[in-house]
DNA sequence: GTATGAATAT
DNA sequence: TATATTCATA
């Protein structure tokens, strides 16, 4: 407990140190194993457990609190609690993975995707900017740029979304409770007749017309979104809020909203 | 051969 | 119901 170097003394110099460092977008996510499970098993390396956004966020929190209170015993406690919660969450999955491994080494079990409102918004944004013509699963998937998201995931969701659009332009507006779909308003560009050149109706966006006959390449809209599987700072730089707000970034709130949810799956 | 989308399965 | 998987076909 001698010379105490307070972390806050350096807080204002951190941005200076960070100059030239890769941004979070350029780094592999913490939740992503460095080697694939197949490779790991091929070389008899015990595979890393999956890490949820919550796990990464908690670990980060521990790191930060550890840095701030170097000499407090908090760190130990936090570690313990982290370990406990983590193992509780992982146990099933690891067992499942082992079982899966023993029966067939190749098949990777993917968790059932849960379309959170955030994910769905991302989906709708991309579809809107592609136009109905180009909004096909592969392209959507690429533009959404969400790690772990498969073409099948998107195809399935797209199928449902199309049905929703059809149903809502035809029938009464509020028939069923599609909570998810209603969470993100349908962009005007998706309302059936795409060919409404000239005076586009006021689509909230001041930027107005979006000439999107282009391919998937240059679309300006989709900022790379951190995958839902891990805790990164936060989604859309430039959209939701300014990016310097890492303070609220810790913990549960984040992963509750912005992560895959793991649903134990029975083996077939 | 891949990608799509409707149908079907879980 | 929500998501996954299958399958005909483009």
UniProtKB/TrEMBL annotation:
<dbReference type="GO" id="GO:0003677">
    <property type="term" value="F:DNA binding"/>
</dbReference>
<dbReference type="InterPro" id="IPR017930">
    <property type="entry name" value="Myb_dom"/>
</dbReference>
<dbReference type="Pfam" id="PF00249">
    <property type="entry name" value="Myb_DNA-binding"/>
</dbReference>
<dbReference type="InterPro" id="IPR006447">
    <property type="entry name" value="Myb_dom_plants"/>
</dbReference>
<protein>
    <submittedName>
        <fullName>Uncharacterized protein</fullName>
    </submittedName>
</protein>
<dbReference type="InterPro" id="IPR009057">
    <property type="entry name" value="Homeodomain-like_sf"/>
</dbReference>
<keyword id="KW-0539">Nucleus</keyword>
<dbReference type="InterPro" id="IPR044841">
    <property type="entry name" value="LUX/BOA-like"/>
</dbReference>
<dbReference type="GO" id="GO:0005634">
    <property type="term" value="C:nucleus"/>
</dbReference>
<feature type="region of interest" description="Disordered">
    <location>
        <begin position="175"/>
        <end position="209"/>
    </location>
</feature>
<keyword id="KW-0804">Transcription</keyword>
<dbReference type="InterPro" id="IPR001005">
    <property type="entry name" value="SANT/Myb"/>
</dbReference>
<dbReference type="GO" id="GO:0003700">
    <property type="term" value="F:DNA-binding transcription factor activity"/>
</dbReference>
<keyword id="KW-0805">Transcription regulation</keyword>
């Amino acid at each position: 407990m001698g010379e105490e170097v307070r972390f806050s003394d350096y807080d204002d110099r951190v941005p200076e140190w960070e100059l030239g460092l890769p941004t979070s977008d350029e780094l592999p996510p913490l939740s992503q194993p460095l080697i694939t499970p197949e490779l790991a098993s091929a070389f008899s390396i015990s595979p890393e457990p999956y890490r949820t956004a919550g796990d990464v966020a908690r670990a980060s929190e521990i790191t930060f609190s550890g840095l701030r209170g170097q000499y407090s015993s908090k760190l130990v406690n936090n570690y313990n609690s982290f370990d406990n919660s983590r193992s509780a969450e992982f146990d099933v999955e690891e067992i499942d993975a082992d079982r899966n491994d023993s029966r067939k080494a190749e098949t990777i079990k993917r968790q059932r995707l849960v379309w959170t409102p955030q994910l769905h918004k991302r989906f709708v944004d991309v579809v809107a900017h592609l136009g109905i013509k180009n909004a096909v699963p592969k392209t959507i998937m690429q533009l959404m740029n969400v790690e772990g998201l498969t073409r099948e995931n998107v195809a399935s969701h797209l199928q449902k979304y199309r049905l929703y659009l059809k149903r809502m332009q035809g029938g009464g507006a509020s028939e069923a409770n599609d909570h998810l779909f209603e969470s993100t308003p349908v962009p005007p560009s998706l309302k059936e007749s795409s060919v409404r050149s000239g005076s586009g109706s006021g689509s909230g966006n001041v930027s107005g017309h979006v000439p999107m006959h282009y391919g998937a390449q240059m679309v300006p809209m989709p900022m790379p979104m951190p995958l839902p599987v891990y805790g990164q700072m936060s989604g859309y730089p430039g959209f939701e809020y300014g990016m310097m707000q890492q303070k609220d970034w810790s913990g549960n709130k984040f992963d509750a909203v912005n992560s895959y949810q793991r649903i134990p799956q029975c083996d077939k």
